[in-house]
């Protein structure tokens, strides 16, 4: 089984959506990513938490086969994020970001992780993303995510990371902001020109777009009746996408298309509950069945 290393945030989130709210629940880009990706590949997690991070989540990750040798427990409080969504669930409004233990975090890739074949730089300070890139020897495939907080706050560092990765997985608003371009196709072209050969743009409930050279693939969004909390959808998407690529090693166009659908599958489950609640009971059989639903949903004959 291929190894997939992820660096990102592990967080305690307080989230409000039109359908409810949850205070101090586990979140974080690396948390959501690892859980989703663990359905496909062996995950190695590089992150930092404070003493207050719940042991229950660490046990759940271990039970899913996630390797926590790269997890640092620091004195101090875990990273905290407070956000709110209106009826447009595609846009998170950040109310508060407290870096806490991230302020002094310097990711150290354990020797056993340096040979990782697949690497995902989840949403985190782009300077930290670059330092992990420096430490991994010759990964077969690397990708990163980011968000508005870093696009506006650490643009130069982010551009440096983008020059060095094979793929970027970002949401629509972030792609526009990063490119300074409102048309999504032109924005994707501009992001491709920044370095990565693959650009995946997540469009929330409307699906996702994959751009590679002149090739474009459009994945549908699954019409869901119950959406409670979109937090972590992007990271779950990335987990399904990267996990599938790592599990098959298939870098053909068809392989990337399937990876985008597996990303969409994992995101669609995650939004069905707050935090990662839905993922606690999710089975591999349900994951593959939903892949079939996506296939049925988008299928039509060529005339
Ligand atoms: P998403 O998948 O885009 O909904 O990501 C949601 C997760 O991103 C939340 O669980 C937050 O804890 C985490 N997050 C929010 N802001 C930041 C940040 N500035 N750096 C790293 N992670 C963040």
TrEMBL record:
A GO term for molecular function: kinase activity
Pfam family, one: PfkB
Record GO cellular component, one term: cytosol
All copies of domain Carbohydrate kinase PfkB, residue ranges: 21-274
InterPro entries tied to this protein: Carboh/pur_kinase_PfkB_CS, PfkB_dom, Ribokinase-like
Keyword annotations from UniProtKB, A to Z: Kinase, Transferase
Protein name per the record: Sugar kinase
